[in-house]
Structure of Dolichol-phosphate mannosyltransferase subunit 3:
Amino acid sequence: MTRAQQTISIGLLVTSLPLWALVSFGAFLLFRLGWNVMTFHDVPEAHKELMTEIDLAKAELRGLGVDVD
């Protein structure tokens, strides 16, 4: 292997590392997203709070004359 071939090979290796880092990071994020979706737990308190906020918003809109049903 000549010195030029060696330099080109090392250059290609170094320039391909950011691409591999980006692909690996994306795969890791997709895995984390899938895992969190699979292990999602319902939170009854958050559901009650959200329903209360929805009822409050409906009451405010009715007060302004908007039909929400």
User: Anything to note?
Assistant: The two ends are 77 Å apart (CA to CA). The chain has a mean pLDDT of 91. The chain is about 80% helix and 0% strand.
